[in-house]
Each structure stands twice: as C-alpha cells, then as structure tokens.
Amino acid sequence: MKYSIESEDLQVEVNSIGMELSSIRSKHSNQEYIWQGNPAFWTGQAPVLFPIVGALKNGQMIHQGISYSLERHGFVRDSPKPILIDSGTNFLRFGMTWDAETLKIYPFKFSLEITFLLEGKSISIQHQITNTGAGDEAMLYSIGGHPAFNCPLKANESYEDYSLEFEKEETAATWLIDPSGLISLEQKPMLDHTKNLPLHSHLFDHDALVFKNLKSRRVKLVHQKKGPVLAVDFQDFNYLGIWAKPAAPFVCIEPWLGIADSVDSSQNLEEKEGILKLASGQSDQKSYSISILE
C-alpha cells in the first residue's frame, strides 16, 4: 500500500512494501524525480538495504560458527512485513521487527523504524535501528539507501546532459566489482582533483561505482546547462555507491553504512568490512536527505 505526504512544494509517496520511497513530485511543474521502476530496466525505486549492503561471498555469512544465507542487500526490500506506525500531513513512520523467519537468515532480534519527514523541498529519511535481543551479544548490521532518480528528466534531453557534482574536490578511485557482486582487490581511477563526474551511457558497464573515502557528504544531480536538479546529503554514511543499469534512464545515489564482501572475505560477520554493532537495548539513528533544487 502507498501512503502520501505533502508540503507546499512537493508530494511524496512511500510504499509500505519494503518501506520504499516511490515518488517525489513537484506540485508546481508535475515533474517526477523518482524512477518509476520500469521493468524493462529495473523494477526497484529506492530499496532499503538491511541488514547487509551488497552481496555476500557465496551468498552466505558465518556467525558463531553457523552459516546463514542472505540475498544481496538483505531482506527488507520487497518485504510485505513493514507496517505504518504513525503519520501526519508531512511525515510517515514505518516499522519492521524480527520474527521466526528472519531469525533463520539473520540471527539477531531487531526493530527497524524509518521515518520520512517532508519539509518544503527536502525529505529526510531517518532510520532507527534497535537491538531488541537480550543478553550480552552485540547485534551486527549494515544499512543503506538506494534511491533512483529519473535522468534525463525531460523528453528532449539526453543522459550526457547531466553530471554529478560533489560537495568537495575529490581524488578517488572506484573499487571494481566482480561478476558475483563482490568487491575486487582492484581499483580504477575515477575522480582526479574534481567535483564533477559526467554521466554517460557506458559509465556503469561494469556495475556500480563504489567509493570508500570521499570527503564529500553531499552530491548534486546537475544539468550541465540548466543547473542543479537535486541533492543527496549523507552525513551519517561513510560509503557511497553510484549505479544504474547500463543505458537506463536513471541514476542511483546510494548512501551506505557497510559494503559488499570482498573477494577475499572470511565470511565471518564480525570481520565484515563496515559492519556496525549495537549492544542489547541500544538504538542508533542514521539519516540522509533528498532536496529538490529546481
């Protein structure tokens, strides 16, 4: 089921299935900014990545000697289990908790609440993760966003009219992804003392761009002649993925806390790069925001 909130400027929709952002539409121009999931390319729109980001080596992780199977990006995306907890004219709060089925694939008791708060032309996506298990064992998890934006926005534009603009000048390489979705040991230079990453139809021929050490915590989608379209702010997130299906008319700007397994991963969850820990009863809040700049 989809739920709607609005401000003077925007109307926003969220699908309770997967707690997935499904629309950001201008009330003035009727422009839709979120990719609408055309199955010819990719049916996703803005899946929530939990309790892992990316793929596991051989699709499995090991915790306390027991192996668990988890699909890429975890089990929240496409899940019918989240429910609407609270709502108002400008916010929606959804929640999902552990159950007998999740314990079979992820051995921790958790609560995940996501609040979508709309103020003017900005929407904040606020994640609250809680370890609801008893005892001394820490809960291990990752979380990430995967919002996809229409690009180009207008019928008379091309993908090459657009670029991504980083908040700060960056010199950074992307970590290459192998055919099974794992982070390889190789890097490819991508940004060289620049804020600008031009988009083109072959940019994602070898999967996502994966950045581990950016200085920037804001990325704008920019039309090279018309100016900024939108921005994603991700102060709470240490990794950034940028992705689209090759030649597809969208671009994903993905804040991550966590990353896919590397090709040389031990598969031990405690040793997984970027893994986060929560003590019993402890909560953490991680947020990113999307701002329309037109």
Characterise the protein shown here.
With 294 residues, this protein is an all-beta fold. The chain has one helix and 21 strands. It has one domain: Beta-galactosidase, Chain A, domain 5 (Distorted Sandwich). It is 2% helix and 48% strand. The strands form five sheets. The protein has a nine-stranded antiparallel β-sheet, with no helix packed on it. Strand 4 and strand 5 form a beta hairpin. It is globular, with a radius of gyration of 19 Å. The protein starts with a strand and ends with a strand.
Strand order across the biggest sheet? 6-7-8-9-21-17-16-13-14
Taken together, the total number of domains comes to: 1
Overall shape: it is globular
Instruction: Let me know the average pLDDT.
Output: 97
Extract low-pLDDT stretches.
Answer: none
Strands, count: 21
Tell me the β content: over 45%
Q: Write the CATH architecture name.
A: Distorted Sandwich
Please give the count of helices: 1
| Radius of gyration, in angstroms, nearest whole number | 19 Å
Largest β sheet strand count, sense and barrel closure: 9 strands, antiparallel
Alpha-carbon distance between the termini? 29 Å
The class by helix and strand makeup works out as mainly beta
CATH topology: Beta-galactosidase, Chain A, domain 5
Query: Strand-and-helix sequence, N→C?
Result: EEEEEEEHEEEEEEEEEEEEEE
Helix content: under 10%
The CATH class label is Mainly Beta
